[in-house]
Structure to design on (150 residues):
């Protein structure tokens, strides 16, 4: 069963309520790209009247994790996934609607194939870039995902 934005948003509501309440929503997903948005509002702001860094991180991580989840489902294997490291760079105050885009779906294929063939855990780095409504980059997140066949 293919993952859709609607299914991912329902998942967020029931399994990640903090992200859902903060406004994290999946807008688009295919084999190589996932787009997640979050709008700056009172519940997710910091004392400087911009979006709290952790809320940006939730949206960014979800854009990468949804792609990993989709590829694992397609494989038909039981595979565990975990973020083992992350890095972030903030370049502008995050206000308004922020759109996080990950286009690294193709990176998952090789790591997943190798994990299934060898039975050994694999890691890969995925990037999600956050832009405001004017198309200006506000933050970039890099997540190291670890995948291992159960």
């Amino acid at each position: 069963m293919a993952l859709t934005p609607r299914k991912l948003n329902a998942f967020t509501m029931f399994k990640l309520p903090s992200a859902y309440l903060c406004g994290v929503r999946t807008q688009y997903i295919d084999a190589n790209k996932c787009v997640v948005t979050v709008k700056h509002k009172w519940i997710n702001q910091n004392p400087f009247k911009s979006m709290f860094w952790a809320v940006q991180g939730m949206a960014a991580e979800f854009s990468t994790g949804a792609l990993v989840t989709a590829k694992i489902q397609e494989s038909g294997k039981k595979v565990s996934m975990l973020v083992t490291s992350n890095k972030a760079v903030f370049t502008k105050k995050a206000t308004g609607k922020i759109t996080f885009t990950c286009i690294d779906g193709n990176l998952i294929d090789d790591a997943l194939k190798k994990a299934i063939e060898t039975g050994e855990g694999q890691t890969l780095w995925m990037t999600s870039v956050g832009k405001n409504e004017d198309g200006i980059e506000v933050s970039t997140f890099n997540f190291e995902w670890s995948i291992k066949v159960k």
The CA atoms of residues 32 and 105 lie 4 Å apart. The two ends are 21 Å apart (CA to CA). DSSP finds four helices and six strands in the chain.
